[in-house]
Amino acid sequence: MAVLLVAGCGPSAEEKAETNAAVQNFTPPFVMSRLDYGGVVERRFRRLDRNDDDKLVASELSPRLAPRFAEIDANGDGGISNEEWSKWMLARFDHQDENRDGTVTSAEREKARAQREMDLPTPAEEPATNAAGAAK
Questions:
Q1: Tens digits of per-residue pLDDT, 44-68?
Q2: Fewest beta carbons less than 10 Å away: which of 19, 85, 117, 131?
């Protein structure tokens, strides 16, 4: 009899389903220190450098990063050195580290992503009709 009473006290099938759904959709918080990020930057450079010549060329970058090649290639020599890559990547980290505590949290990361998506267009990206109207 006591077994039946204890069994009846557990969560219902609906509660179990809700708990399982919450567990499956759980995303752990993101926290990364600048020091740890430096290691990630180095490993990523090595993975991208497919021909192991210690520089990245445009064809070695992902389609998402390829448009930023000239920005990352600070000296304009046609290749991104590990130093250029690290400097650019750490600047991105520092930009996301809003409170300057040396770590980037989930909240800081998401805020930086949202701000980047909401960037205002440059004058070159404005429609021709607006540019013509502004010139008057």
A1: 999 999 999 999 999 999 888 899 9
A2: 117
Task: Report residue 87 as tokens.
Answer: 């400097």
CB of 113 closer than 8 Å to CB of 34 = no
Contact 79, 56 (CB under 8 A): yes
Distance CA 35, CA 56 (A): 23
Contact 54, 81 (CB under 8 A): yes
Chain centroid to Cα 73, Å, comes to 20
Beta bridge partners of 105: 31
pTM: 0.63
Amino acid 17: pLDDT: 72
User: Which domains does the chain possess?
Assistant: 29-118 (1.10.238.10)
